[in-house]
Structure formats: structure tokens, C-alpha cells
Amino acid sequence: VQVVESGGGLVEPGGSLRLACVASGVTFSNYAMGWFRQAPGKEREFVAAIAWSGGTYYADFAKGRFVITRDSTKNTIFLQMDNLNPEDTAVYYCSTYPPKSWGQGTQVTVSS
Q1: CA-closest candidate to residue 58, choices 72, 40, 45
Q2: In Å, what is the CA distance from 94 to each residue of 22, 36, 58?
Q3: For residue 90, what are the CA distances in angstroms to 28, 52, 77?
Q4: What is the pLDDT of residue 17?
Q5: How far from 42 is each of 37, 60, 90, CA to CA, in Å?
């Protein structure tokens, strides 16, 4: 599975970003896909996942602020992130769920 993440950047606290992940090398509609993140000095952690059926799952810190969606016609998943805070600063990765491989990730920095 190959993935390419995009959409990261620098945003002020309270701001929003929309991440995208294009996957290849997999029959996309057969897999659950997920977003993960890794902050400096911390282990990679689960953020959100979406099942092939459309069911969604979120880490507690993401509930109410992040929304994961998928467009199976484009082999793409998205992560809409609202009300960002500095603790959300991390490199965000997507993968199958459970994860099998990793892309380069996209950096999200929340700072004033």
C-alpha cells in the first residue's frame, strides 16, 4: 500500500485544516483506513478511522473536533480538523487500519 498525505501547514489556535490521503496498491473499498499522528518526542497515536462501510471511530481528543471521510471513487480519505490547539501539532500519517505501512506524513503546526 502506498499513501501520499497532504494538506498540513501552519495554523493559529482555533483554526482549521483539511488533510487528504491518496492510497494506491490496494483495493481501497475493501479496507478500513485511518489517520495517526506523531508529536515530537512521543509515540505515534491513533486519531481516527473509517471502515469500508463508512463507520467512523475517533480518539477521545478528536471527538467533536475532527471528522474523517472517504471518497472511494478517488481512493482518498480526508481529515477535517477544526478548533485546533497547540497539542495537535504533529506529523499526521494515514494508513490502512490496522496500519501496515507508512507514507511521509504531513506536518501540522498549531501556533500563534
Answers
A1: 45
A2: 9, 6, 14
A3: 26, 26, 18
A4: 98
A5: 10, 17, 9
